[in-house]
# Entry
Amino acid sequence: MSTLTIMIVVLFVVGYLCIALESLTKINKAAIALLMCVGCWTLLMCSPGSFYPEVAGDGVVHHIAEVIEHHLGDAAGTLFFLMGAMTIVEIVDSNGGFNFVRDTIKTRSKRKLLWRVAFITFFLSAILDNLTTSIVMIMVLRKLVQAREERLIYAALVIIAANSGGAFSPIGDVTTIMLWIKGVITTQGVLTEIFIPSLISMVVPVLILQCSLQGKFDKEQNLPKAEVTQFTKAQRNAIFWLGVGGLVFVPVFKTITHLPPFMGILLVLGVLWTVTEIFHHNTSEDDTMAKRVSDLLSRIDLSTIMFFLGILMAVAVLQEIGVLTAMGEGLNEAFAGNYYLINGIIGVLSSIVDNVPLVAGCMGMYQVPTAAELAANPALQAFATDGIFWQLLAYCAGVGGSMLIIGSAAGVVVMGLEKITFGWYMKKITWIAFVGYLAGILCYWLERTLFF
# Structure
């Protein structure tokens, strides 16, 4: 390994640590990711010929420009998809589309509410994303559960259910979106094989958590809900079904047209935008200006988008210099091709550090084999589209983040909203989430052994 390669790896590791320690450094992880990205590419340009010996003379600079544009194109597909999905969810939420959730889960029984919260969060996260679903569910819980001690248990369940629900859907989590757009998993494959393990990873914690809840809530907790929009109930329902139904339609659109997924998201956004503009014709001027999509676009979390851009482009450098390939070969040799153990470790790591760079790194370490490569080496079937490695990666990277409250976007946002401490979550919830995580892996192993 050359000195320059070591410098790039060290810079990446230092940046990674700064991102993981964001709560201590108080520096936004997006800023670190962008600096890490530019720094790694700059170091590569110090001696580009050593990494591309097959490119002669000054042509290496032009070649690197093409390489950057290629990786940027791949990253842009993911980023535009996320931006479109985030905007659609913001439109639905801002116009009262999620009001029905409160009416659906309302009950005086504490245990019934626990199960309703679990299943609503689980399936809603598969359609939206775990971050947005967590915000919606915490806002709902604040209206239904006034005792803080009890609400923390529900909030912890929201984290677990949101991450489990996002793992079995191609649009439910950033990591599954990345794997789906890359083409290493398909909609049918991930739904067929990961749904039951994900469900088990949610149900097991609910069975444990319900032991700490007994009795019923006071009647006073069923408070009347004020309308947040001038739209009628029919209009709010129309916005909800257009938004959520549109997100569900995106994988279908990709299958029919073979266009990139972000094109489907832009189609749904365009339809929803048009419909809300029509609805706003009959509202007051103040409400119109506050709720229009052009205004809601400013609420999109661009720091998150910048973070993903920086991470994906920084990981691309490691892929270009061959580090990820070497790491993949090393893992295979160390664990003798035990993909359950490899992905199990990745899942645990995803609870400590962000799962986005972990999954991005894995996509660089392992490639989908060609038909000729599969014929020559059948063992590579694990890395084929919908192979065992990619399916397990989707599950482990998504569900594993529930083990620590800082291990997922859902955990971080709930931590901020409910002021849950790291210590409380680790003492009360970590072992429960871990038991569910292992139960899901065992379920997947049984599926593969008995049915696939």
Notes: The CA atoms of residues 189 and 386 lie 6 Å apart. The mean pLDDT is 82.
